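Hi everyone, sorry if this is the wrong subforum. Our group has a chain we'd like a structural model of before ordering constructs, and none of us has done structure prediction before. Sequence below.
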Amino acid sequence: MRTTRRSVMAMLVGAGVMALGGAVAVGQTTIADVTHLKGRRVNTLTGYGLVVGLNGTGDGGKYAPSIRAMVAMLAKFNIPVGVDELGKSKNVALVWVDVTLPENGVREGDRVDVKVSAVGEAKSLLGGRLVMTPLQGPGLDAIFAFASGAIRVADPKTAPTTGTIINGAVMEEDIIHNYINELGQITLVVEDVHASHALASVIEQTINEDVSEIGQIRRIAMAQGPKNIVVQIPPEYFSNPVAFIGRIEGLEMLMPRNESRIVINRRTETITIGAGVEIAPTVIVHAGMTITTATPEPVPTPDDPRIDVDHAASIDTTESNGTKLRELVRRLNILNVPAKDIIAIIENLYANGQIRGKLVIRD
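Answer:
Right subforum, don't worry. Here is the predicted structure as tokens:
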């Protein structure tokens, strides 16, 4: 059987993808599985540098910024060279250098990977080496690392002007995140895909129950909206807050029912539907076909006559208050409706208030 993009999408929607959503309390989840500490973040260091050793694929003498940078670099080594003397050089390229630091911070001496991208007229960075380059933060007020080394070009044919240097940057400063505020509190941030008032309340209750004793209720955790839970570190953990954070992150809890959700990726034409997503009784007419989710089907009247179309299908709604959206999508696939049309139908149903669930669009 010939497999097309449309049939792959149909299999995803009709089988396992939809089975992932909408489950009710199916097992234990730890607090760390659905939250992170406020203050944990990814930092980026950047800088401009020179790549040398290119086999005639560099910027060339016509790209003045590269030549000026090379003159300045040679001057640091007490090698005075004029711009005109380097006019025919094609083995050097000016590049943009950046590194992404781990979200939990780094220490002096740690090594991190480096990304390098040509900014001038270089045709390829293959075979080049990055000269020692200082890397700074957003404020450009301090040097946090130095990068250098041989460049690895992953795809010389389609992306010859970008590359990486594995462990190419050495940290010169510590970058450590502070998770505890001046009041001795930490904040647990619920990941966006799980954020809800119900889950925040469960996390609050789980922590408070864990630190409480019989006859002594302690309320050290307080939910502040669907995403944030502020936790006061108990006095007995002031000298060892890491142990306390590890303790509460490892607490198990029973997850509340997932939010009914549909996630659409327009670029890949992928549709992910939670099992609990329903649509209200309706009739859909789209591109010469009709789908009815009303049972029984509407009786034609002079004001609302039946329209003959090439394709038709009906969906039984007698078993529940509404129709499962996945059943509608399954019927649309049977009628060989293109993925982009299915996405358009879902978006229109949602806009009209016919879908009982949350629609998330990702381009």
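For your construct planning: The longest strand covers residues 162-171. The chain has three domains: 5-21+259-362, 28-39+179-254, 44-171.
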